[in-house]
Amino acid sequence: MSGRNLTMATDLYQLTMLYGYFKTGTADRKGVFDLFFRRLPWNGGYAVAAGLEQAIDYVRELKFTKEDCSYLRSLGLFSEEFLEYLGKLRFTGDMDAVPEGTPIFPNEPMIRVTAPIAEAQLLETALANIMNHQTLIATKAARVREAAGDTEVMEFGLRRAQGPDAGLYGSRAAFIGGCDSTSNVQAGQLFGIPVQGTHAHSWVMGFPDELSAFQAYAQTYPKACLLLVDTYDTLRSGVPNAIKVAKELEAQGGKFLGIRLDSGDLAYLSKVARQMLDEAGLTHAKIVASGDLDEETIQDLKMQNAKIDSWGVGTKLITGGDNPALGGVYKLAALEENGQLVPKLKVSENAEKTTEPGIKETVRFYSRENGKALADLLVLAHEKVPAHGPLTIFDPVDTWKRKTLRDYDIEKILVPVFRKGKQIYECPSIQAIQVYGREQLDRFWPEYKRLKNPEEYIVDLSEELWNLKHSMIRELRASYTEQVF
Q1: 484 belongs to a structural domain
Q2: Short-list 449, 167, 444, CA closest to 314
Q3: Across-strand partners of 363?
Q4: In 3D, which of 1, 120, 21, 7 has the Cα closest to residue 71?
Q5: Given 74, 100, 290, 313, which is the most exposed site by the fewest CB atoms within 10 A?
Q6: Residues of 364-400 as b/e, b for ≥16 C-beta within 10 angstroms?
Q7: Same structural domain, 359 and 441
Q8: Residues 160, 127 within the same domain
């Protein structure tokens, strides 16, 4: 959806800060900001980056219109000179980002912005909104995909999403994470995602009886008939009527696809329905399941040997279920002083909220023997990492935990997106993103992808970055004025 202007989709304090920079003459002072998250959702082992294409659209279209400035004038907070400045504001800086579909981990920059601080600061709200949402849903979809294995996954969440935009971009993110199709027609139209759907219970209830409803649907879609069989009684009515219609349809040269189960004990019902279909000679008919499914339910059903070929996943996918927000943050990492970018650090009594200073890269190490990911290392951008090892890395908290990497290949996962305000990155198709994402996840051992209690993937700091961070913490502490309460 390029061309959509989201410039006013921001928090007021971004604009009050911009006004402060403008008033103090520091708006053109260069700053570096990182967008990252601190914790993995669902206590999982990884996240899947998504939303970059929409983030690029937002940055490229950044512009305050006359109508925008008129509204801001009405707030009584800003001078005419500042509003004139906003009217001319465009993004002129650099942006680097992790390609969509890439597995990512806490504290690794998903996006790095280097620009005049007024421009860089303004991007915070919209970039966080876009990337937090789509990364969350793509990650949930990847977990569902992992649970479903080689069976089909359809995203059915539009009606339960928190608004049309959340439904639309949630469908996009779900496809990136591994869903095969969506029920969302607009997502199919705009993004080229395959669309699928059957009929509702109301279709069955709108006819004198279930059999006539099934027959009418089969006549409407003789080459693609899939019937919802749980409106009344799944095993005594729904499945027998579906079998009768299937035989009538195929005798006339039609194609019966299968049945959908939307309620009840899906493990038991699918097993009995499978037996009934097979005994009727409909071994090719698929069984689709839906109804408040998520990755854990799917995993449990598969462990019970449920005879389900396809999963329709809705509410718990499109909303994130019991983890409705990613919690990504956008923090200043470096600021221009006397013509040089100087590392900056936010310190908190909560160690998790103390940021990593400086301009950073994430280096991913892969085994040359099997191609599997070994570890990630956050390094300062100017550092040279040994090309093939050995390299000893250490845990940034429990520094006695050390690992020596040998015979590896390395990859920097941030790629250039904007340079001097010009987009230089060409967004791949959503189909290519999905394939890339699956290939990337396949490079991680299954232990990291377990739904429960996954092995923690190693993300360490380089020795130079660790030393910089801790020297800055010591200097800040030394500069505190002791206060007596």
Answers
A1: no
A2: 167
A3: 377, 412
A4: 7
A5: 74
A6: bbbeeeeeebbbbbbbbeeeeeeeebebebbebeeee
A7: yes
A8: no
Amino acid making up residue 479: S
- β-bridge mates for residue 97, sequence order: 111, 415
Q: How far apart are CA 380 and CA 268, in angstroms?
A: 56
Residue 240 sits in a domain of what CATH number? 3.20.20.70
Q: Which among 223, 281, 231 has a CA at the least distance from the CA of 261?
A: 231
**CB-CB contact of 425 with 56 (8 Å):** yes
What tokens appear for 38 in the block?
């601190």
Give the Cα separation of 428 and 279 in Å (integer).
46
Which pLDDT tens digit goes with each residue over 17-55? 999 999 999 999 999 999 999 999 999 999 999 999 999
Last residue of a domain, one of 264, 292, 318: 318
Phi-psi sector, 321: left (phi>0), alpha (psi -120 to 50), beta: left
Give the total number of structural domains in the chain.
2
Backbone angles phi, psi at 172, to 5 degrees: -60, -50
Handedness of CA 146, 147, 150, 155 (dihedral sign): negative
Strands 47-48 and 103-104: antiparallel
Instruction: Please tell me whether residues 312 and 396 are part of one structural domain.
Output: no
Q: Which two tokens stand for residue 254?
A: 């039609």
Closest by CA to 318, choosing from 130, 169, 127, is 169
Size of the chain, expressed as the number of residues it contains: 485
pTM of the model: 0.96
pLDDT tens per residue, range 68-113? 999 999 999 999 999 999 999 999 999 999 999 999 999 999 999 9
Place of tokens 């911009």: 18
